[in-house]
Design brief:
Layout (H helix, E strand, L loop, with lengths): L15 H10 L7 E2 L12 E5 L4 E5 L3 E2 L1 E3 L7 E3 L10 E6 L4 E6 L6 E6 L3 E11 L12 E23 L4 E6 L2 E6 L7 E5 L7 E7 L3 E7 L12 H16 L9 H13 L1 E2 L4 E2 L22 E2 H12 L4 H17 L6 E2 L10 E3 L11 E3 L10 H16 L5 H17 L18 H21 L5 H18 L1 E2 L4 E2 L26 H13 L1 E3 L2 E2 L17 E2 H13 L3 H12 L11 E2 L6 E2 L5 H23 L1
Antiparallel strand pairs: 1-8, 2-3, 3-5, 4-7, 5-6, 7-11, 8-9, 9-10, 10-11, 11-15, 11-16, 12-13, 13-14, 14-16, 17-18, 19-20, 21-22, 23-24, 25-26, 27-28, 28-29
Length: about 625
């Protein structure tokens, strides 16, 4: 089996190595290339991410910031031009005659540089969501200053620079204190101020600059006392970079694709809401899983199922504080609420109700745009296993399970033992009637197994023997009832059905060993029947597994990383490594990955960047390194 490297998408980008090497070695190792639009929109590959532990922004190669929600990830967007180029709004700093550009992160930081060439000169814009001086990104404490810094320097020639600030909502600008006070019609309580080192002619300014000229712009919303006289921009940038580099010192990894794993760690940190420890699934909403389709969801929340995968991966690269904080967030949410939800907002509360926004056309005219996520009301049995797995990891590494929490956990273990045969909406959150998904039953097995282990290891009161018995009963039922001898594979449902790539996660959750004959056969069947080419996998085939939605979707990257781990655990280490390298080659030159890939051209689909995809990079890399070490020591 051979996996070809990523094919160029709509942008003629450099090969992966040349792009990512620039993260370490400097801007000279990346190439300028022309901007290309589809339906008036930049491809998702052409965006970088910046953040401050409270919110995040997308910065395009065209100098625009068409995505920023303030003051936090799940707030209404200040700019959302990525969802409607005409009405969504953007903050643009770019040459009028922009021809080509390139992007690069400052090494080991979330600070992004965009170099743009016009016909007569080149300008560099350095963007950061600034951090407080001395901020410790290992603490669950606010580090964000509540401001966006855009630092401009003309590198050569002369540049006519456009500075355009267009929030989505109607805005009134008033000169005050050497800057502009901005008032939004829909958010009168939001304290917005724009300050610059040059005079601004309102919200649209054109400046003629020469080589060596510099300009700084600071957009603030934090209500800071000294917003009219901000700290020196160079100092803000320096302290922000230093905070990132102090944090990166905790990174510990030796294995394949070390540079991408390192960048994936930083990307996950950019999705981390520091005040509570929640990690958002992605910092964006409604980026489509297929151009022109309706599979557009709001991912600015934290999913319970993400926690167990995330904590496992974070611990293995030295990010212990992030793992501990996310676990604490999950267990706090469980204690506060009754039956666990699938997802929560950043504070561990219910998210806003899902609604469609008719005013926005959607990325590349792919409506609807959605705010909120109705999956929080679904019945998904896998949350039992996710929560118990989180509790098990917490107890093993971070502390005791107190009696009140243990009482809640016991209720969940018993619920898993009773409900594992009942229909639910599954890991993929189908919007049809519930079905008895195999993955959901498997995670009920995980709940019973981890509950029994917790009881035995820590002397917690429970009928651990009964739980072990019920756990084994579910495991055997999966092997018997989900097995279809005609297709020689486990299937998506107890009782049979189509194929589902979530079955590849069963060995990762210690439900069925990867080298079990039925798991080996399932791996082969999923690879063949759900394969989208070059190692990419669909989650399922929508024609065979109806999900209540029309249209199609791209290949789901995390499923391919699960395939890597199955191949490695089955002793097919060379194939696993080859597949892993080919998946990593799909990252953009900044080292960022989306949720899904269009198999026809390699372009990015879905919310971006996607935490789950970067978890896959980290987890698969770590486990490949371990398998290599085991082989060498045997």
């Amino acid at each position: 089996m051979r996996f070809e490297p990523a094919q160029p998408g709509r942008q003629p980008r450099t090969d992966y190595a040349a792009g990512l090497w620039g993260i370490i070695d400097g801007m000279e190792s990346t190439s300028f290339y022309p901007l290309q639009w589809a339906d008036g929109y930049l491809p998702l590959e052409d965006y970088g991410l910046i953040g401050d532990g409270a919110t995040a922004a997308l910065v395009g190669r065209d100098g625009g910031i068409p995505w920023l929600c303030v003051p936090r990830f799940d707030s209404p967007p200040l700019f959302c031009g990525i969802l409607d180029r005409g009405r969504g709004g953007s903050f643009t700093v770019a040459p009028e005659d922009l021809v080509e550009s390139r992007q690069l992160y400052e090494p080991d930081t979330g600070v992004l540089m965009t170099e743009m060439r016009g016909r007569s000169g080149t300008v560099r814009v350095t963007d950061a969501l600034t951090l407080r001086s001395g901020a410790d990104l290992n603490e669950d404490a606010p580090a964000a200053r509540g401001e966006l810094l855009r630092s401009v320097r003309v590198l050569e020639g002369s540049v006519r620079l456009r500075v355009v600030v267009e929030p989505r909502d109607e805005v009134r600008a008033e000169s005050r204190g050497g800057g502009l006070e901005l008032s939004l019609s829909s958010r009168p309580d939001l304290d917005l101020h724009l300050w610059a080192t040059a005079r601004l002619d309102g919200l649209r300014t054109t400046l003629d600059l020469e080589a060596g000229d510099r300009l700084s712009l600071v957009l603030s919303w934090g209500g800071r006392q000294h917003r009219y006289h901000p700290d020196p921009p160079d100092g803000l940038l320096e302290s922000t970079q230093e905070a990132w580099r102090r944090w990166v010192r905790c990174f510990a990894y030796e294995g394949p694709q070390e540079r991408l794993v390192r960048r994936s760690a930083i990307t996950l940190k950019l999705c981390d809401y520091l005040p509570t420890g929640a990690i958002v699934a992605a910092p964006t909403s409604s980026l489509p899983e297929w151009i022109g389709g309706e599979r557009n969801w709001d991912y600015r929340y934290a999913w319970i199922r993400d926690a167990a995968f995330s904590v496992y991966a974070l611990r293995r690269i030295g990010l212990v504080n992030e793992a501990r904080s996310f676990l604490g967030w999950v267990l706090d949410a469980v204690e506060r609420h009754g039956r666990p939800k699938v997802l929560y907002d950043l504070d561990g509360e219910n998210p806003q109700p899902e609604r469609e926004d008719p005013e926005l056309e959607g990325y590349r005219r792919s409506p609807p745009v959605r705010w909120g996520n109705a999956a929080d009301a679904q019945r998904q049995h896998d949350v039992f296993g996710e929560i118990l797995d989180c509790a098990y990891q917490w107890a093993m590494h971070d502390g005791d399970i107190d009696p009140a929490l243990w009482e809640r956990l016991c209720e969940l273990v018993d619920a898993a033992g009773k409900e594992w045969t009942e229909p639910d909406h599954g890991i993929w959150e189908v919007r049809t009637a519930g079905r008895p998904f195999t993955y959901s039953a498997a995670l009920c097995q995980v709940a019973l197994d981890r509950g029994a282990r917790l009881s035995e290891r820590f002397g917690l009161p429970a009928d651990a023997r009964r739980w072990h018995g019920e756990s084994e009963k579910i495991r055997q039922a999966i092997l018997d009832e989900a097995w279809d001898p005609e297709i020689n594979s486990l299937t998506e449902h107890l009782g049979g059905g189509a194929l589902d790539a979530s079955l590849l996660a069963l060995p990762l959750r210690r439900v069925i060993p990867a080298d079990h004959p039925k798991m080996v056969a399932t791996t082969a069947a999923v690879s063949e029947r759900l394969g989208a080419g070059d190692g990419l996998l669909y989650r399922y085939l929508v024609d065979e597994s109806p999900d209540g939605l029309s249209g199609h979707e791209g290949a789901f990257l995390l499923c391919s990383f699960w395939l890597v781990e199955n191949l490695a655990r089955q002793g097919r280490l060379e194939e696993a490594m080859e597949l892993y390298d080919s998946l990593c080659a799909r990252a953009n030159p900044l080292g960022l990955l989306p949720e899904q890939i269009d198999p026809s051209d390699g372009s990015f689909l879905g919310n971006y960047p996607q935490a789950f995809s970067h978890i896959g990079v980290i987890s698969s890399g770590f486990n490949l390194a371990r398998e290599v070490e085991n082989r060498e020591s045997s």
